[in-house]
Design a protein that fits this description.
Layout lengths: L1 E9 L3 E3 L21 H6 L3 E5 H8 L11 E4 L14 E4 L3 H10 L4 E5 L1 H9 L5 E7 L7 E2 L10 E9 L3 E8 L3
């Protein structure tokens, strides 16, 4: 069982700007349409766990649903999903340990964890095994941070770093076990 974060941040550690927007993610020209390894990453995960805000952001992109893996939306307030996504998205609520145990029991062993509050909750409970963070060369000066306060430090080791589009630095970290 493993939980991986695959996400982009600004140089100052934000995943969305002060208005909750992510349009700055497309500021770097990408003439070849590189996915920067996202398809390879998706090939090795079983399901996606995201928060309500991230789900609502993705639904608002005005593109076809981008995921072919099961998506579980953590929310205590959302009661339904759009009819067009009923066979692709399930709502889940409850304590994080119980949610992860239930998903693991259903056969989902490698989860992609997405969304600011969701990532922060998983980190607070020491449930992230891998971080893949793409850093874009922009300073937003505020917004939604990737990280928040933790009860204790969590140690990761750098596995590799890649550069994409001569501008984006993607770092791969594994949870340190020593």
């Amino acid at each position: 069982m493993s939980n991986t974060v695959y996400i982009a941040t600004s140089l100052d550690g934000y995943i969305a700007d002060k208005d909750g927007k992510v349009d700055w993610l497309h500021a770097i020209p990408n003439p070849t349409g590189s996915d920067m390894g996202f398809a390879d990453f998706m090939a090795r995960i079983d399901a996606i766990v995201m928060g309500r805000n991230t789900f609502e952001t993705v639904v608002g992109f005005d593109v076809p649903w981008p995921y072919d893996k099961p998506v579980f939306v953590l929310s205590n307030t959302l009661k339904t999903v759009p009819d067009a996504l009923a066979d692709k998205v399930q709502l889940i609520a409850g304590e994080l340990d119980a949610v992860v145990s239930e998903l693991n029991a259903q056969g989902y062993q490698h989860l992609y964890i997405d969304g600011g509050k969701t990532v922060q909750s998983f980190l607070r409970q020491d449930r992230i095994d891998e971080l893949i963070i793409a850093t874009l060369p922009v300073v937003l000066g505020g917004g939604i941070p990737l990280f928040s306060a933790l009860p204790a430090p969590l140690h990761f080791k750098l596995v590799k770093t890649q550069t994409h589009l001569d501008a984006i630095v993607q770092s791969f970290y594994q949870r340190a076990t020593d």
